[in-house]
């Protein structure tokens, strides 16, 4: 019975633990490995001594994620072409009814913010995630990381300034983004260059992540003309037996392109003033395995 109770408690907090680990690591597989290790620590702990299970589990998960992050940074430095996080299925609409809280969670898991978080140190990233995404008090974060509260405040301020300086300012309204994603799909699918140019901001950026394992630009493309022509060319080449699905990934609408029912690529857009400011394409097959096939 005690084991069942421990399992129930852990499963209750699993979504939060996975959310912390994913924001720390940017890969679903790494995050799941960390959460599994946290379960092993939890199952072997003297739970009678644990006064606040959620805090204990977040502390264990955060420390494990810091260790894993230090290992994977070397892997990312050798990455072929631009790096983007692995797509992460989210559904804040059902689980987080408060609009303000939903906006914070969606922003903290967005591709644009996660790319910026890659440039933080592991400790800065941990403090930023715990403070900005999950709202933990500085004193609690200090206890989780075995640091003084003053040091944690300094880390938090430095991380927040770094993120604010580097992350783009985009609209987060999911309805508007979904509408533009649908129009983007129609124009790109038809090879309509003029239609695409009407949607793209003049200084739009396209970031493609293939890891060198499929077709995608090995450098960032900039300007509406370059991005539009690339998208039209890619649509003409196409994929075998294509189908398309809109779903929520990383806190916003995304277009999943399937080939014979299996995920081939993910497109996500950042939008501002009614125009597409950034196009993210994830085609590394290793990063698509967690998406469901149909």
Give a brief description.
The protein contains 12 helices and 6 strands. By secondary structure, the chain is of the alpha+beta class. The longest helix has 25 residues, at 53-77.
Describe the protein in words.
- This protein has 294 residues and is of the alpha+beta class.
- It folds into two domains: 2-81 and 121-159, Butyryl-CoA Dehydrogenase, subunit A, domain 3; 174-287, Nuclear Transport Factor 2, Chain: A (Roll), CATH 3.10.450.50.
- It contains twelve helices and six strands.
- A six-stranded mixed sheet has the order 2-1-6-5-4-3.
- α1 (2-25) packs antiparallel against α2, α1 runs parallel beside α3 and α3 crosses α8 (138-145).
- The longest helix has 25 residues, at 53-77.
- The model has no long low-confidence stretch (mean pLDDT 90).
Radius of gyration: 20 Å
Mean pLDDT: 90
The gross shape turns out to be: globular
**Structural class by secondary-structure content:** alpha+beta
Examine the secondary-structure arrangement and name the CATH architecture of the largest domain.
Answer: Up-down Bundle
Q: According to CATH, what is the topology of the largest domain?
A: Butyryl-CoA Dehydrogenase, subunit A, domain 3
- CATH level 1 class label of the largest domain: Mainly Alpha
**How much helical structure, as a percent, in the residues?**
40-55%
The helix/strand order is HHHHHHHHHHHEEHEEEE
Query: What is the number of independent domains?
Result: 2
User: Based on the structure, what is the oligomeric state of the protein chains?
Assistant: single chain
Distance between the termini: 39 Å
- Major β-sheet strand ordering: 2-1-6-5-4-3
